[in-house]
């Protein structure tokens, strides 16, 4: 019997780790796994440093053995690294701290502190691990031996006589904190993800920290809430572009990139600006004399010679900058008319130390010239290329491989004849150019998109992955935006990724480019716009690499067979784990039903559905097989679905075509809006075909989704049924409402202007129903239930005074006075942060109210 128990515990523990593995690996299948929380530390003022409290609502309590693990790496390129990674504080005040001190004399930078003494657990990690990869840390307590065991992924340490109680409750804090005498603002510039807590070998909590915004994080097991101050979510860093510099320069500057030093050079008529992407610092160098640089000039940095060149193609001139003298080696003549080579592409070939310039546009003519400037003999020649057609174009993207022998040109705008008046169009072909053979080879042509786009000037080539990154934008409008695109170098597929960059486009006044910083693992975007006053606005943006995908790939997806084998194996493991947990849960449920009081047995079990749509928490669609098909929805389709679904289920009974056009295609002509609507309605019907008993139609003259609620579960419909009666609410109603709310607030990760009123209505109804119940119910006999109600009110209103009174009084009734006081103090901080004034009532007055 004893052996059997040991075996089951081992299996349970392994399956717990398997669950964490799937939590980590599943997002990586759909897009890059970029979860985690960046902590602002010593390089930031104290008020802006990051704290993570896993025990904001209540402490973690264990009866003996427990384990805390997480992944960590330090943000590189900062001067000072000192502070608390975590603090674990027992209810009796006993503390366990992990501290990092880069100036430790014995080179053991990480130190584990127990109480007010250093333990014998101390170690160092090599820089290549600490600053360039995630490191898995684990601290576990073994009650039988009163021993702490710590691992850092490579080494294992232990400390006897840890001093914990046989059973106790703990505060668990990462980074800065404001907790009693343990408060600190000493934090290293670090990143944390995948925090898991095990109780007797069983996974109890798991925070992947995969949020995009907000100051809360929820664990995947029981939705336990953690709070964050001054967060910078790594997911957001890989999704949203960050504006790091904005500057205005007189005239017509151009930009170049020094990849080795990760410096953007901004070449102006009177000065050179050097912007360091690493420390986001800009330095201005005055020229010895002012020079004429005309609109349409371009700049390029030669990594081989270390020279910065400024080029004006019309005059066949390339000038380089001499840093010691602060001079350019030659000047340009004052042009008599605008350039004939707007937005031409360029690259420097390592194969023959030459600058190549391709295409361009000017004087109503698109170009397909290939011009070469030999950097050694300083001569220009026209290249007589061979191979497939290189149609005249501009607004294409060009990237070159590391060896400098192969250039890829993607897309552009032009015409077969080169004449602007003869059927100009956007191109979507990928063309490869070989320097040594001077030959063009067409690789493929993308299917024409629904909305045309052109490219920023450069592509970033990822040769090992056989892919490229570029920036695309709508070249048929002035107020547009840039968005990152990831494409294949071998097959006609691409994916739009990352957020938007505002971009004003007028081809003779605008320019955009994309660069890659390998050491910093960032992509950099630069935009230029010359205003009518002859001043040019230059903006520099960065995004962490790899950027997050926002939708499914477009084109012919090819899935290697070895990936299918791996995924099949993972699915088999998951099925086995799910079956095991299912059996254990059924046993546990049976045992629970045998032991619970009889008056609870009348609560009906929720009906099980395969097909469901969840609107509370994150939007989720499960098809007839229970599979998640949410990822099939593009951002536009997601909004279209919610509009029709919500208008169908509410009193409106559907939504008109005119209303859809007004909300989704405002400013478009009637024809364009109608075409867009028809295309996207068809796409949405295709996705809904996976959800049986959900039918999108316009039979009544309004677009609506007919749903058989006997076969499809929609939590918002269930919510409407619960709240339709205007009464104080029965306990059964409240229990059903809490089941709906357990995934989180209504559409918590979605923001639309038209949705604000609906969200507000839901919040008011939920709060009113929950609080109305407490006015008539016997709150004294059910303090745990009252705490749960108060917590759900706080989800919708963080400074609700009624919820504060309910929770503090219930916690005090349970004897948890410390938690009650912590709840009050946290409420005070949030109240002041929102209203900028102190909460005037005292803790005692709240308890006695």
TrEMBL record:
It comes from the Bacteria. The chain crosses the membrane at residues 564-582. The keyword Signal applies. Residues 1-32 form the signal peptide. The keyword Transmembrane applies. Keywords: Membrane, Signal, Transmembrane, Transmembrane helix. This is Two-component SAPR family response regulator. It comes from Mucilaginibacter terrae. The lineage of its organism: Bacteria, Pseudomonadati, Bacteroidota, Sphingobacteriia, Sphingobacteriales.
């Amino acid at each position: 019997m004893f052996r059997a128990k040991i075996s089951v515990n081992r299996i349970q523990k392994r399956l717990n780790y398997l669950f964490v593995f799937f939590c980590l690996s599943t997002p990586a299948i759909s897009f890059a796994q970029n979860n985690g929380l960046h902590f602002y530390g010593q390089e930031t003022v104290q008020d802006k440093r990051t704290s993570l409290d896993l025990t904001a609502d209540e402490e973690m309590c264990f009866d003996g053995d427990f384990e805390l693990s997480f992944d960590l790496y330090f943000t590189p390129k900062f001067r000072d690294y000192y502070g608390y990674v975590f603090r674990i504080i027992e209810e009796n005040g006993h503390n366990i701290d992990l501290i990092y001190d880069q100036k430790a004399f014995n080179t053991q930078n990480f130190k584990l502190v127990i109480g007010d003494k250093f333990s014998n657990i101390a170690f160092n990690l090599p820089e290549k691990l600490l600053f360039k990869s995630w490191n898995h840390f684990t601290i576990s307590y073994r009650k039988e031996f009163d021993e702490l065991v710590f691992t850092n992924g490579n080494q294992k340490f232990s400390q006897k006589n840890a001093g914990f109680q046989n059973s106790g409750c703990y505060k668990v804090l990462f980074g800065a904190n404001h907790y009693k005498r343990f408060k600190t603002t000493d934090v290293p510039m670090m990143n944390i993800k995948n925090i898991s807590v095990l109780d007797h070998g069983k996974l109890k909590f798991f925070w992947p920290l995969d949020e995009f915004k907000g100051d809360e994080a929820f664990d995947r097991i029981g939705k336990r809430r953690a709070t964050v101050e001054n967060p910078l979510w790594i997911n957001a860093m890989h999704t949203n572009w960050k504006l790091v510099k904005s500057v205005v320069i007189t005239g017509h500057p151009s930009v170049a990139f020094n990849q080795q030093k990760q410096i953007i050079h901004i070449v102006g008529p009177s000065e050179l600006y050097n912007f360091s992407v690493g420390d986001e610092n800009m330095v201005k160098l005055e020229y010895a004399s002012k020079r004429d640089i005309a609109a349409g000039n371009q700049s390029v940095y030669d990594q081989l010679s270390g020279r910065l060149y400024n080029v004006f193609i019309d005059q066949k001139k390339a000038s380089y900058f001499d840093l010691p003298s602060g001079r350019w080696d030659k000047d340009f003549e004052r042009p008599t008319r605008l350039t004939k080579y707007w937005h031409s592409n360029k690259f420097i070939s390592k194969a023959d130390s030459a600058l190549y310039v391709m295409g361009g546009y000017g004087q109503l003519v698109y170009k397909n010239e290939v011009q070469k400037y030999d950097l050694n003999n300083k001569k220009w020649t026209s290249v007589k290329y061979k191979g497939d057609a290189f149609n005249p174009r501009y607004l294409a993207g060009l990237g070159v491989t590391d060896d400098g022998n192969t250039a890829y040109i993607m897309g552009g705008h032009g015409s077969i004849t080169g004449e602007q008046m003869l059927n100009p169009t956007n191109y979507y072909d990928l063309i490869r150019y070989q320097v040594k053979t001077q030959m063009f080879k067409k690789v493929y042509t993308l299917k024409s998109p629904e909305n045309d786009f052109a490219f920023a000037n450069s592509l970033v080539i990822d040769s090992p992955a056989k892919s490229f990154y570029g920036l695309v934008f709508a070249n048929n409008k002035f107020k547009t935006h840039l968005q990152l695109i990831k494409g294949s170098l071998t097959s006609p597929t691409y994916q739009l990724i990352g957020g938007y960059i505002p971009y004003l486009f007028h081809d003779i006044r605008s320019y955009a480019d994309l660069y890659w910083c390998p050491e910093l693992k960032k992509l950099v975007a630069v935009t230029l716009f010359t205003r009518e006053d002859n001043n040019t606005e230059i903006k520099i943006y960065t995004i962490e690499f790899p950027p997050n995908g926002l939708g499914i790939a477009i084109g012919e997806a090819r899935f290697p067979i070895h990936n299918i084998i791996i995924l099949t194996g993972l699915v088999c493991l998951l099925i086995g784990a799910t079956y095991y947990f299912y059996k254990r849960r059924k046993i546990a449920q049976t045992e629970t039903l045998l032991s619970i009081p009889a008056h609870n047995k009348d609560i009906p079990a929720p009906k099980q559905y395969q097909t469901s749509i969840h609107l509370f928490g994150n939007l989720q669609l499960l098809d007839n097989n229970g599979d998640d098909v949410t990822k099939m929805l593009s951002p536009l389709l997601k909004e279209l679905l919610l509009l029709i679904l919500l208008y169908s289920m509410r009193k409106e009974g559907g939504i008109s075509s005119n209303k859809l056009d007004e909300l989704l295609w405002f400013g478009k002509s009637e024809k364009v809006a109608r075409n867009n609507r028809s295309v996207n309605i068809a796409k949405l019907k295709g996705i809904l075909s996976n959800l049986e008993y959900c039918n999108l139609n316009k039979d009544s003259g309004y677009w609506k989704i007919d749903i058989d609620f006997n076969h499809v579960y929609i939590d918002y419909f269930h919510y409407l049924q619960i709240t339709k009666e205007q009464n104080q609410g029965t306990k059964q109603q409240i229990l059903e409402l809490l089941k709906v709310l357990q995934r989180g607030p209504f559409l918590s990760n979605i923001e639309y202007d038209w949705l604000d009123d609906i969200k507000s209505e839901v919040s008011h109804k939920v709060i009113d129903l929950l609080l109305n119940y407490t006015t008539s119910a016997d709150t004294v006999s059910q303090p745990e239930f009252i705490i749960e109600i108060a917590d759900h009110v706080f989800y919708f209103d963080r400074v609700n005074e009624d919820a504060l009174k309910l929770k503090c009084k219930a916690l005090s009734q349970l004897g948890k006075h410390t938690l009650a006081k912590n709840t009050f103090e946290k409420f005070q901080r949030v109240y002041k942060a929102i209203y900028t004034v102190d909460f005037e009532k005292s803790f005692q007055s709240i308890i006695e109210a």
